[in-house]
Amino acid sequence: MLILLPMDSDDTQEGKLVPVMEAKKWALLNVEEGQIVEINFYDTKEEITEWIEVVVVTGDYEPVQDFMEQQIMVLVAHTQRSIDDVFEAFLFKELHDMPY
What we know:
- There is one protein chain.
- It is built from two helices and six strands; from the N terminus they run ββββαβαβ.
- The protein is an alpha/beta fold.
- Helix 1 (65-69) links the parallel strand 4 and strand 5 (73-76).
């Protein structure tokens, strides 16, 4: 499973989830059997050629129409900002669906 996160940097420990329009880097988490097996960073989301299953954003009113048109599930992390916190919230189903 591939999870996409808009980030403020490519630092896996210090980088923070940011609004889509403020993303300096895009983190692509490769998840297998409940574990992150690889994290790749991209300058733009258009560089990513793999099939993304989930994108996590910071708020309910993010511009996510492009993701939805591509049938990518959009989840909201209202309080989680680090990769570890977002991933943990994903595993425990603590992220929220986008209000439509």
